[in-house]
Amino acid sequence: MRYSRDQLIKAxxxxxxxxRWQHTQGVMDSARRLxxxxxxxxxxxxxxxxxxxxxxxxPVEKLKSVIQxxxxxxxxxxxxxxxxxAEVGAYVAEYDYGIDDIEVLDAIRYHTSGRIxxxxxxxxxxxxxxxxxxxxxxxxxNIRELANHSLEEGLVAGxxxxxxxxxxxxxxxxxxxxxxxxxxxxxLEANS
Length: 192
Ligand code: DGI
Ligand code: FE
Ligand code: FE
Hints:
By secondary structure, the chain is mainly alpha-helical.
């Protein structure tokens, strides 16, 4: 079945606590705004945002079994469980909600980790997730300001804040996050 925007919103919002749905709405608004500013398709940015955290409240065992059974990135299982909802979210978007746009599916899949060669849509959704109006963590206003003039600078600052937090807790870092950050810095250097 093909879902209309309203049907999708209804289906996704009913699967999460009110607070998480408010976060999702914030990401939808921020992603639309970034898409307008940086020349991306605002409807696609919004669609990716509606679905980006669809699997956030799945039980860990269910996330794990989908990653194993559907042969998604098994490597992900070696890293923080908080990364798993992104990969499973892309799967759910494709198979439960009939999304076949690879730009949208990848923006969902990489919204937490980032990746090397992030597309414009990947960048917009990942950064919108960092700066949506409901976010409140040390440094968020600096990331919001950077986002006003550069997607890459905003993302480097966002990924740095995540990496710094993980380091401060002596937690494992998913290597793709480090690669994503390094690649964005290389992009900035190439354009300077
Ligand atoms: O789902 P959200 O809370 O909206 O945000 P998210 O999908 O960006 O992140 C989920 C959490 O994953 C984030 O607070 C930090 C945590 N995390 C754990 N290990 C890693 C990681 N995030 C990244 N980017 N890389 C990691 O290795
Ligand atoms: Fe997420
Ligand atoms: Fe999110």
